[in-house]
Every structure is written in C-alpha cells, then in structure tokens.
Amino acid sequence: MLPRKEKIKIVHIVTALNVGGTEMMLYKLLTRMRKDRFENIVFTLKETGRLSKDFESKNISVYNIGGMGGVLKVSVLIKSLNILRQINPDLIQGWLVHGNLVATLVSAFLPYRLPALWNIRYTALPKAETKGSTLFIIKLLSLLSFLPRKIIFNSKAAANDHIRMGYRRDKSCIIPNGFDTKVFLPSEEERNSVRLELNIPEEAMLIGLMGRFDPLKDHSCFLKAGAKLLNYKRDTIFLLAGPGVDWQNRHLIQLIEKLGISENIFLLGERQDIPRITAALDIATCSSVAEAFPNVIGEAMSCGIPCVVTDVGDSAWLVGDSGIVVPPRNHEAL
Question: CA–CA separation, 178 vs 184, rounded Å?
Fold first, then answer.
C-alpha cells in the first residue's frame, strides 16, 4: 500500500471574500475540516474582501489573483497556473459562476489532470437582474459540465434548474446547507438586549430581513409589504441588516421616504452579531426573487423564529409547515 500524503491540498476559487451566504459557508466549511488531514487554500478573483483576514487568522492561505472585471482576463489564468504549480494541490473547487469557470480552465491547462469540483449555489437567475456576461458563462458551463469530477448543488431546485439547462445529471449531487444550532438558538436575553439597544418597545412586532443589498433580494418588495402592514398594525418595526443595507443607500432611503415608513425602519448595515439579531426577531423574512437554499431562513428557524418566504429555490421545502410561503415579486401577498 502506498503511503498516504501528509495532507490533502485543496484550492478553492471564489470571486471575493466579502460577507455573503456563499462566503460564510466556505468559511464554516474550511474552519471545521480536520487540519491534520486537509490543507485549504483560497484564490479570490477580484479583491480579497473583508473576510480574508478571518480566513488567514485560521491559517488558511488567501491569494488574490485579481484582474477580473466584467470579463475574465488571461492574466488571471496565468497567475493561477503559476501559483498552482508551486502549491501542487490534489483537488480544485470552484465556487459560483466565475470560480467554476476558472477552476475548469486552470485544471485543463496544468501539465497533469487536476480533479475539479463545481459548487453551484443558485437557481436559474432572472435575466432582468443578472449581468449578460454572467448568463453567458452559465450557458458555457453547461457545455463544459462533462469536465468536473462532480457538480455540487446546495438545493434540489438549483440542481433541477441546471439539469434542464444541460448540465450533466450524472455528475450532480446535492449537499444542503447546514446550520450551527449552538450559535443560532432561541434567546430571550438576546431578544431583550437588541430591543434595548435600538429602543424598540417590548410590545412591538419586530420583522427582519437579513442579506446584502442586491436586486435578487428584492428589498423593495419587503418595504412595500411593510408599508401595507403598517396600515393595520402601526406598532410593527422592520429591521434590515447586511452589506449595503444602511442609511447611505440612496435607493433604499428614497423608497422608505416615499412610503412614509422611516420611523418604523432600522437599517443596520453589515453586522457581526447576526445570531443575536436573528434571535431578537418575531418574524424572519426572505423576499428574494431567486435563491437556492437561503442561509438566513435556516438560521432563523434554528432560533425558533417563524418565517415568511417567497417561493424560490428550496425555501418552501425548508420552512415546511413552520412558516408561510408566498409568490415572489408580490408585496401584497408578502
């Protein structure tokens, strides 16, 4: 029997390490893998991102191979290949559209065949909210889907959508997101502390939407639904948190002022205490027009918070009979 290598080296390629569901899941995965068996390295295609320091503090190397704007540059591939030859990994895994493409290309150009995995964490993306270059790469990857060793989806809906687009069924497997129930848990103490911090009355209904500012998250639908609800329940408070969801966001401010709901809104921006904030909610919401398997809903359910979600991705399957499911882009239903 051949001696086993000291550690299995895995290179992960992702657009950037900014705060988001994919990036946080990557962080949770890598920091929980056995360090005596695996060595993980991360390549970022744009900026390294705010989370890079968190990865590096856990002895996970982060390389910014940079240069990716609207199109993929040859310099990105050359730099990737040079570093990969030095690292000599056993496996390469792409994350999301651009990461999957780069993982496939560099794997093909190495002098030895490096096994590649794709990680797809999105359903069929709506054309109106998605860049044309991204849609092109998604189509291109369907033609290249015979190349990776496996295509990993985090939801049944994502797998079904991509198989319909021509992705190889025999290469596909589904690994749903997991949630740390020791971090996200019911807490009356946290509920009280958040209300004290924000000066929210005890009797007020607190409804939350967690997630970065992005057209796919449809914050407008959430705010319009909130304005309608306030016609019936004036003591409702809406709490939104995530990158770009703050009082510097002109789009959000203009809509909030137009709806006349400023006094009932908290825009907290990017927060480091999402488990605490989630535990303080009375209702958690997902108003997205596209999702695969929303982390924020699983985290809310882990905290014992009832959820109202749009019927996208695996959201309806996730909440089951513990929440309410409504059509996307319909603030009346929400």
Answer: 12
d(CA 194, CA 73): 46
DSSP 18-78: -SSHHHHHHHHHHHHS-TTTEEEEEEESS---TTHHHHHHTT-EEEE----SSS--HHHHH
pLDDT tens per residue, the chain (334 residues)? 445 558 999 999 999 998 888 999 999 999 999 999 999 999 999 888 889 999 999 999 999 987 555 456 777 788 888 899 899 999 999 999 999 999 999 998 887 788 999 999 999 888 888 888 889 999 999 999 999 999 999 999 999 999 999 999 999 999 999 999 999 999 999 999 999 999 999 999 999 999 999 999 999 999 999 999 999 999 999 999 999 999 999 999 999 999 999 999 999 999 999 999 999 999 999 999 999 999 999 999 999 999 999 999 999 999 998 899 999 999 999 9
Tokens at 287, concatenated: 């108003």
Indicate whether this model's pTM tops 0.85: yes
In the chain, what are the domains? 8-174 (3.40.50.2000), 188-326 (3.40.50.2000)
Local structure of residue 125 (DSSP, 8 states): P
Task: Give me the amino acid identity at 216.
Answer: L
Report which of 26, 314, 3 is spatially closest to residue 158, judged by C-alpha positions.
314
Residues 307 and 284: their CA atoms lie apart, in Å, by 5
CA nearest to 55, candidates 84, 37, 28, 83:
28
The residue type at 31: T
DSSP 112: S
